Amino acid sequence: MKRILLGAVAAVAIVTAPAAAAELSAQDKSQILQTVEKGGPRLGEVAKQIWDYAEVGYQEHKSSALLQSELKKAGFKVEAGVAGMPTAFVASFRTGDGPVIGILAEYDALPGLAQAATPARKPLPGVAGHACGHHVFGAASVQAAIALSQWMKANGVKGEVRVYGTPAEEGGSGKVYLVREGLFKDVDATLHWHAGDANDASQGVSLANISGKFRFSGAASHASGAPWRGRSALDAVEVMNVAVNMLREHVPDGTRIHYVITDGGQAPNVVPEKAEAYYYVRHRDPQVVRDVMARVQKAAEGAALATETKVAFEQTGGVYNMLPNETLARVMDQNLREVGGVVWNAEERAFAEAMKPLLPPSKATLESAAEVQPLRIGGDGGGSTDVADVSWVTPTVGMRAAVWVPGTPAHSWQAVAAGGTSMATKGGVVAAKTLALTGAALFRDPALIEKAKAELHEKRGPDFTYQAMVGDRAPPLDYRAKPGAE
């Protein structure tokens, strides 16, 4: 892969010029918006079912099956279990030769965040929660694709709308395996969205990321009766963590390293024979991520040497940095403004007012849920996503819709709570309308697609060849399994 820092993209630019899109006719807009509005109640039902399922990465069997069923009923041909992932699928609605527009759907939950749909902390006994809004992400993407397919059929529009069911976005890099298998090679443009606390079509530069688990093995012994006979795997994890924390001073600016100890033993009076640490390394430049993770691995090897233990490393994920496409961003921004923000009813407003004092301090007002924020291109997104890999092989654009109370951070109990309410449905409807209108604009004006492709080729450079950050490993279908479990 050619090393590209994308420095020119990093600067944030507020875009005020009009979009380059050919205006959709009033009839086109009306058909699409009415179809999504009519499907809004079902969107909400599907999202709530997936919210209730709360299945973690590569274990989203019921969630994936539900979305596939919705698409099949709408006339899509569905291929399940693609790219070695049982919960991944590709669904296609084709009317003839023409552009291929992809729409991404996610549906995995986060472990440890089960929460009731109330504006107060009320943990549930479940093992996971939809703290990143993927339940409504998947439901709205499917609804957008269905609306687009019906519009295509009614108006004789030739082409294909294709839904990619993508599991394990949260650390499992599901989309990477779809890209690696060449499943996007004929896609002309790809659309996606994400739950948020605001509405906008801004395009940031996410961070490239490599994640993996360091598993240490030593020798068990009685921690008091014969500690000299033991070799503590937990000691090795702790030595590694100290070494990596010393490393932080000596890595390139913008590097992020974080970890958890996922297995530290079972009983204090037993020298731990097994222990595990789960690490992430992030940076805007994929090569920096590779270099820093190699140094983290050396720290693990040194810890094993110091404690007379052994260590094995399994890379569980790896993604590129996002490659924004301004051409498509202008089109999506225009359509989001056509749709507008989220309008709450009295009950939803009361929920938001009760939740607001429990959120971190923020300048966001409750009124901002009904607004569309300015279009910005560039700037660090802070997190990482496997959508980034898609953005390097096909022009890609995304947006946010206000699913949560303004000021809500992702990966929080507050996000889970709002995600289980009608507020989430309304945000999903905004997203579905915007995705469908954007797809229709691209079908109506293929010149936009060519312009977006030219922008992609220019930004990634003439020498670019996609090489997955995960290498040739198979999808880590057990990465959410408990340590030691099969």
Question: Which descriptors apply to this entry?
Answer:
disordered N terminus, 486 residues, 2 domains, four-stranded antiparallel β-sheet, Alpha-Beta Plaits, alpha/beta, Aminopeptidase, globular, signal, six-stranded mixed β-sheet, 13 helices
Structural notes for this entry:
Residues 1-21 form the signal peptide. Pfam families: M20_dimer, Peptidase_M20. This protein is α/β, with parallel strands linked by helices. The protein folds into two domains: 7-205 and 321-460, Aminopeptidase, CATH 3.40.630; 208-319, 2-Layer Sandwich (Alpha-Beta Plaits). The protein is built from 13 helices and 15 strands. The chain has helices spanning 7-10, 26-53, 61-73, 134-155, 174-180, 233-247, 286-307, 326-339, 346-355, 387-391, 413-419, 422-444, 446-460, and strands at residues 13-15, 77-80, 89-94, 100-106, 110-111, 128-129, 160-166, 189-196, 203-205, 208-217, 256-263, 274-283, 310-319, 375-380, 396-402. Helix 2 runs antiparallel to helix 4, helix 3 (61-73) packs parallel to helix 4 (134-155) and helix 8 (326-339) crosses helix 12.
CATH architecture of the largest domain: 3-Layer(aba) Sandwich
Chain-averaged pLDDT: 94
Share in β-strands: 15-25%
Structural class: alpha/beta
Strand order of the largest sheet: 2-3-7-4-8-15
Could you please say which CATH topology of the largest domain applies here?
Answer: Aminopeptidase
Largest sheet: 6 strands, mixed
The percent range for helix content is 25-40%
CATH level-1 class of the largest domain: Alpha Beta
Number of folding domains? Answer: 2
**Fourth-tier CATH superfamily name of the largest domain:** Zn peptidases
Uncertain ranges = 1-10
> Total strand count, please?
15
**Element pattern in H and E:** HEHHEEEEEHEHEEEHEEHEHHEHEHHH
C-alpha Rg (nearest Å): 23 Å
- Count of helix runs: 13
Shape: globular
The CA-CA distance between the termini, in Å, is 35 Å
Protein name: Peptidase M20 dimerisation domain-containing protein
Keywords: Hydrolase, Signal
Pfam family, one: M20_dimer
Domain Peptidase M20 dimerisation: 210-304
